[in-house]
């Protein structure tokens, strides 16, 4: 789990139906304990090297949208190959700051 300001990212090595239900329980407990509500209209689920049918099923359980596999979070690419084109922008920004 990674938390930053009002964002929470959950990471699983092997996504299972049980882990999705556990996330749903955790989020429900958070709502009860804090009197805050999770906005599922802004929530998304995605997976790297996970069957798209499985992701769609998980999204229906959590009542949220499916996200693209490759996305930018806090300025860093998530879900891309380490040496892929996805990292070119990050490398360029680091080069500029070092120069």
Describe it:
By secondary structure, the protein is of the alpha+beta class. The chain folds into two domains: 1-67, no CATH class; 70-99, no CATH class. It has helices at 17-34, 52-62, 88-98, and strands at 2-4, 7-9, 44-45, 65-66, 71-73, 76-78. The strands form three sheets. A two-stranded antiparallel sheet has the order 1-2. The chain has a two-stranded parallel sheet with strand order 3-4. A hairpin with a 2-residue loop joins β1 and β2 (7-9). The N and C termini lie far apart (34 Å).
Morphology call: globular
Mean pLDDT: 81
Rg on CA atoms, Å: 16 Å
User: Would you list the SSEs in sequence order as H and E?
Assistant: EEHEHEEEH
Largest sheet: 2 strands, antiparallel
The number of helical segments is: 3
Give the uncertain stretches in residue-range form: none
Compute the number of structural domains. 2
Q: What percentage of residues falls in helices of 4 or more residues?
A: 40-55%
Q: Strand sequence of the main sheet, in spatial order?
A: 1-2
Structural class from helices and strands?
Answer: alpha+beta
Counted beta strands: 6
Strand content bin:
15-25%
In terms of quaternary structure, what is this?
single chain
């Amino acid at each position: 789990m990674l938390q930053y300001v009002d964002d929470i990212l959950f990471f699983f090595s092997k996504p299972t139906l049980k882990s999705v239900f556990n996330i749903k329980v955790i989020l429900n407990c958070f709502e009860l304990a804090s009197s805050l509500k999770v906005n599922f209209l802004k929530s998304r689920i995605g997976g790297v090297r996970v069957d798209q049918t499985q992701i769609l099923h998980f999204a229906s359980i959590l009542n949220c949208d499916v996200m693209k596999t490759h996305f930018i979070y806090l300025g860093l690419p998530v879900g891309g190959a380490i040496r892929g084109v996805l990292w070119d922008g990050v490398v360029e920004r680091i080069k500029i700051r070092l120069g």
